[in-house]
Amino acid sequence: MSQNIKTYSPANSSFLDGRAWRRMVADLWGSRELIRSLAYRDYSVRYRQSVLGYVWAVAPQVITVGIFAFLARYRVFDMGQPTLPYLVHALWSISVWQLFSVSLVNCTNSLVTAGSLVTKINFPKESLVIASTGKALIDFLIRLVPVFIVMLWTGFVPSAAVLYIPFILVLVMLFAIGIGFVLAVVNLVIRDMGNMVSMVMTFGMFLSPILYPPPVTAPFSLVNVLNPFSPLLIATQEMLAGAPQSQPVALALTALLSVVVFAVGWRVFCITMPRVAERA
Amino acid sequence: MDGEVLIELEHVRKKYCRSLRKSMLYGVHDIYSDLLGRPLDPALRADEFYATDDVSLTVRRGECVGLIGSNGAGKSTLLKMINGIFMPDEGRITVRGKVGALIEVGAGFHPLLSGRENIYISASVLGMSRREVDRKLESIIAFAELGEFIDMPIKNYSSGMYVRLGFAVAAHLEPDILVIDEVLAVGDMAFRSKCYREIDRLRKKCAIIFVSHSMQQVSRVCDRALFLEHGRVVYAGDTATAIHRLNESTARRVGDGREDAGTGAVSIEGIRLEVDGQAGTTVRHGDDVTVTVSLRAPEPVADAVINIAFYTTDESLVMQCTNQCLPGNSIPAGDSTFSTVIPALPLVSGIYHLTALVQSPDLLVPYAWTKKILSIVVESEITSNAPVRLPVQWAAQ
After folding, report:
1. How far is B392 from B389, CA to CA, in rounded Å?
2. What string of DSSP letters covers B192-236?
3. Closest Cα of chain B to A9: distance in Å?
4. Domain tally for chain B?
């Protein structure tokens, strides 16, 4: 067993320490089964005591979009000219948004929900954070069902560029998990984080072109780039429509940002976790 | 013992902070330094103290070491550092092999899932692979003695079933290092003895660190022990001596719980234990102990029962020295002393609190009653489940 030697001493590895990074990657790879079990646990109990079950995954999304479609139709306010049919645009965008925001909220609460597990058992805690996004991911897949139904109904045929969408979604997840890593640790100490993130997410939904098409006139068009989530969302909308990418630079920068946020969040998580565990 | 060294602690120290606000502040500062990769100043800051102070320890495969000490002595802190939950502030801990911790039973259990599903989840949290669980599933279910209840949601389990399932999973981890913290206090007798057998089986293959407040468990399981006080190792060595040191220190502290009651017809002025003319509070199992009580009475009391009761630390009465149902004593006005001899003290090692009681022969009127008038420590190599042991010889018939 001598191959499995661990030494605990006062932390003194720097942020970019290559050995620490290798260990993080090895830990993450080693905990893939654990992540799957934890995600399975969270998801399988979700609708176990519910009659309508999976309907709850799609109901809020369909109702919100229904209300906005109604308002748009009767010109309560102007929805502009989306490249996609409005229903497809709104249902798809809200699904991507939910994937991001629910992942982030779940990550933030993941360690607090785990309770004494965090302070009593030694296992790669990052698996708790990552596994908490499983629910959001499966809900996202279920939410695609209404999107497909509406596509059939409106006779909309997505372009072949949809094959690139998964790459963008990976970036969305990395972005959410990266922020989630940091907020999860902070939430262990300052419990306000969970509520704060939920609130910010409610605003955030209106600060991205989800229920309305990307604005084209300044200053409103700023939401297309200032909100770091927007370029990713707009990219998926344009891939769906088969339109050329309207802001490739912003997309590239956000993609880079997502990866950096993930890496920084991950490292911060690993460095701070022991310090927080002794205080939580 | 010549097994390979599996756990090695070298001058380990851990700081804790008494004030929550400062603890947060220091935490932010420490995290900031960690992020920049700067070494920390090891000196204590305001309101800080060492929860673990300069502890060194080596445990080899096949050894079982007990950690004993009163609450707050730093046992759990030490366990958590060995388990890698948090890092020492100074010193080094080296662990070789897979660490299994019986600190929290039922890690990762979800109440809505069935026992079977929870086995998989708890096992993966503890570091077992799915394939490993598949192989051991039957054995885990059998160990937990759950039978047909294995597919019931565990929220409907009794607390005993819950603990059995949790322990069964942990017991199948096959660790090299096993850290056990007070989990054996739960479950019924039959399951507890099964856990002991399991630990006995594991101890040949692992290095075990065992924390318990039950000295009976410690002396049964451990080869040697560390007695901790305020984070420091006060004694490291054979289990009996460590337990004795702890008992002495505990007796000193709990000696304060004295309470007086009674009608006031008599007052108890003092009590003394003597062995061979030597007064003290430490006696040995099997000693002839002379007990002397000093009384004072404003008026003479014609007929009284004098009763010295021995309680264990968990407040159960184990022995009384009394002349109840025998001719009573008449207590003269003023000061008087009475003494008796307990032949071959039958108590086994531990701490005992003495309560002195002077009452009427019908036991209805307590003239004087002093609870915890004295705490004594009994030493012996013998530990047993019962606090009283009568050495007897059996004759064939």
Report:
1. 9
2. HHHHHHHHHHHHTTSEEEEE-S-HHHHHHH-SEEEEEETTEEEEE
3. 5
4. 2
A277 to B85: CB separation less than 8 angstroms, yes or no = yes
Domain boundary among B234, B251, B268: B251
Which tokens in the block code for residue B205?
């293959």
- My answer on whether B175 and B304 are in the same domain is no
| B393 DSSP 8-state letter | -
Name the domain boundary from B193, B227, B251.
Answer: B251
Q: Which residues pair with B376 in a beta bridge?
A: B352
Residue B3 at interface with chain A, using a CB cutoff of 8 Å: no
The C-alpha angle B208, B165, A45, rounded to 5 degrees, equals 125
pLDDT in single tens digits along all 280 residues of chain A: 445 788 887 766 677 778 888 989 998 998 999 999 999 888 888 877 777 778 888 888 889 888 888 887 787 666 667 778 888 989 999 999 999 999 999 999 999 988 888 888 888 999 999 999 999 999 999 999 999 999 999 888 888 889 999 999 999 999 999 999 999 999 988 888 888 999 999 888 888 888 888 887 777 777 777 788 999 999 999 999 888 888 899 999 999 999 999 999 999 999 888 888 887 6
